Amino acid sequence: SQVSKVVHLRSLPSDVTDNEVIQLGLSYGHVTNVLMLKGKNQAFLEMEDEEIANQMVSSSGLNPPTIRQRIIYVQFSNHKELKTDSSPNQLNNVQDMEPESSGKSVMILCCCLQSQTDFPTFTIKTQAILQAMQKREGGPNHVLRAVIENMLYPITLDVLHTIFSKFGVILKIITFTKSSQFQALIQMADALQSQTAKLSLDGQNIYNGCCTLRIEYSKLSALNVKFNNDKSRDYTRNDLPTGEPTSILGTGNALHSMLGGNLTQTNQTLNLKSQAIGYTCDPNHPHIPPSQPSTGALHHLTGTGMPGSSTQMVTQLAAIVGGGQTSVLHVSNLNEEMVTPEVLFLLFGVYGDVNRVKIMYQKKSNALVQMNDNNQAQNVIRFLDGVKLYDRPLQITLSRHNQVQMPREGQEMAKLTQDYTNSPLHRFKKPGSKNFQNIFAPSEVLHLSNIPPETTEEFLREKFEEFGGVVGFKFFVKDRRMALIQMSSLEEAIICLVTLHNLKLGESNHLRVSFSKGHI
Length: 520
Fold this sequence. Notes:
With about 525 residues, the protein is an alpha+beta fold.
């Protein structure tokens, strides 16, 4: 293709964000314009000049860039520039067009939206994000310091980004532990955004009755992040290394270690050294945060009170303020003869609390599953996408819906939609539950618990052999209420879990079944 300062990106994730695409372009140089075609998994970036665009295309050919481990294909566009135009008559043209097919020299900056009223807002928002993400130099009161008090549950960098991005564009975040307190430095695009975040979030609980945010302005005007990992991130660059696998948590002088003993106050910049923060989170053993946020925090942020019933499940703060981060999953390729809402509730419930399940009336191989929050929905995708259930590999993606609607009583499809909001089988509803630390990938080995003393190995083997071959079994030596059982295949183990979880074993005992990382 002929050299152009406009580059065409293909094979983007279906739920890619403006920030991620802009961040990719910024790692090569200054970006002057953006066009998102999310419905086609494509985007256009107009670089500052042809030299930067040429460097991006050439470099991508040798070392293809990625977004969330997905390879992105980069090529020159036939278009010479991108121009902003929000006129209604341009909308239909873009909805039907195939990028790079027209050969026109000017591309109209717009996106395939569902309504014309959304169009100008989206364009302005995208351009605002682009401009904000290029303000790397910072300024007075651009950086907030957040201390998390009474932190009973892990607070991840992604949770912080989700919460603070409600109030503006997040450029950089650094997390660390000082004096046994978890803290974070958050650089926002300007002082007005940081002020709004501070006024809105200071004193609020991230989760119900705990993880209280204490926010003040930092003396720093900008953050200089050296590594992109689970402890620090520069959202304007995706070319940073992950750093050495070294944890600062639990160290006596964590901040000093993180900074390598070098905190330069004169230029108001935080320098992050190589021994600082490393990638310490095992992706196969994530910690899912608790499900119930503070109603006070939600009221303060959303302007509405939460339902008064203590049994009614509510969505966690991070998901509500995140904007666009749905907790609803779209599941396809289901075995229509075997899969019921209860089956999906029990299987997906291993990785989060399922609130509602809807099997499509017209196409029963598809379903919508509403988890308690986006974090739990992402964990379901991570662990169950592609896993076989009744001979068919599950295909799981985030849905465009924000919630699953219940049908009216008496409708024929009513039995295909179930509300599990108040189910006693939720694994993560109880704060402090050990289930948060015991989430593992599907495996042939199952962990059994809540076994009464009179239940024998022979009885349990017989129950599980109804659904496959049992190749191993053992009670825990120190606690006979628990056992491990190994099935002959992963698919058999999954069927056993969705069938035998909550099996009644006595007057007050119901079997609990989950995946195990152990071996027999």
